[in-house]
Amino acid sequence: MNSPQTCLEIRGLDVHHGQLRAVTDLSLTVAERQVVAVIGANGAGKSTLLRCVAGILPASRGEILLDGVDVTRLPTHRRVALGIASVPEGRRLFGSLTVEENLRTGAYRHRAGPWDLAAVTELFPWMADRRRQRSSQLSGGEQQAVAICRALMSNPRVLLLDELSLGLAPVVVTRMYEALPRILESGCAVLLVEQDVSKALAMTDQVHCLLEGRTVLSGAPADLDRKSVEAAYFGIDRREAG
Ligand SMILES: Nc1ncnc2c1ncn2[C@@H]1O[C@H](COP(=O)(O)OP(=O)(O)OP(=O)(O)O)[C@@H](O)[C@H]1O
Ligand SMILES: [Mg+2]
Question: Which ligand is nearest the CA of 212, by number?
Answer without folding.
Answer: 1
